[in-house]
Amino acid sequence: MDAPALEDRLIESAIGSLELIAVHLGRVLGLYELLQHPRTSTELAEDGAIDDRYAREWLEQQAVAGFVNVDDPALPWDRRRYSLDDTQKAVFVTPDHPLHVSPLADMVIGASEVVGKVARSFRTGGGVPYADYGPIFRSGQAGINRPAFTTDLVESWIDAIPDVVARLEQGGRIADVGCGEGWSTIALANRFPNAEVLGIDNDRSSIEAARAHALDMGSRARFQQVGAADVPGEFDLVVILEALHDMAHPVESLTAVRRSLSDGGAVLVADEKVAEEFGAIGDQLERMMYGWSVAHCLPASMAEPDSAAIGTVLRPRHVEQLAREAGFGTVKRSDIDAGFFSLYVMR
Fold this sequence. Notes:
Blueprint: H1 3-28, H2 31-34, H3 41-48, H4 52-65, E1 69-70, E2 82-83, H5 86-92, H6 103-112, H7 115-124, H8 134-155, H9 162-170, E3 173-177, H10 183-191, E4 196-201, H11 204-217, E5 222-225, E6 235-241, H12 250-260, E7 261-272, H13 284-302, H14 316-325, E8 331-333, E9 341-346
Parallel strand pairs: 3-4, 3-6, 4-5, 6-7
Antiparallel strand pairs: 1-2, 7-9, 8-9
């Protein structure tokens, strides 16, 4: 890459980072929700209980970035009215909408808060425990996955295992391993009202949040704080959604999962849709996944002793290798379009 192009890339990245900070502020202050109806900066300040000068600056920044609309930029600042169109509402406000990607801002902010610890881990070969990334990162991660986990998972991904779906329609048991804040568990419980659905995760705060979400949604999904290597009981379906690459001991975890399967049961894995092989320069998806790997997934995994240290970029051949080492007879990649994810069925 020549010097001007590299310079432009870094400047554009800096702009993007600053815009994500502003998006995070809008999310935590509830400003996007208020802009579902047109408001001046003074009205936004009053309704959002924030300072008027900050409201004006944030709105102008958002309009310049193209994130919100302004009725007439030529009007004096105190008469301009700002609002969201339907697409902007989906991106910034509607948590289950496929376009709802604004939680990425929370993830970036959360990861930035522990960058000093990550730097020390580079020196020591240690890691940064998941809990250290804090509630901002955790809620951002749950938020960015929520649209796919509450819709695509139960509407299309499970088509990869039609025989198991038919069984679960009548009853049975499902385990959601590495469930995080539980949106996938709740969706599975809604989809299969006759089945028992259990979400497990070794992060206490995630399980507490999952139980709170289930209570709010009136869901009968259950949650238990336990690691993947200690999956409890027998299950007809085990799902591992964007969690396999984070496991410090994936073979041990998959072995425990395999042993928990009932006769004819299956494991559905969704993990990042990365390239088949390493290459440079990568596309946007590959760049993003390596970015998350450096900032979060690898350090969090390496916080545990004897970690496999996979990182975010878990390529298909590596998934197949892990499945074989765990004793699975077959592992097949599904051709179902799962967006940012690749789907694998292990039996």
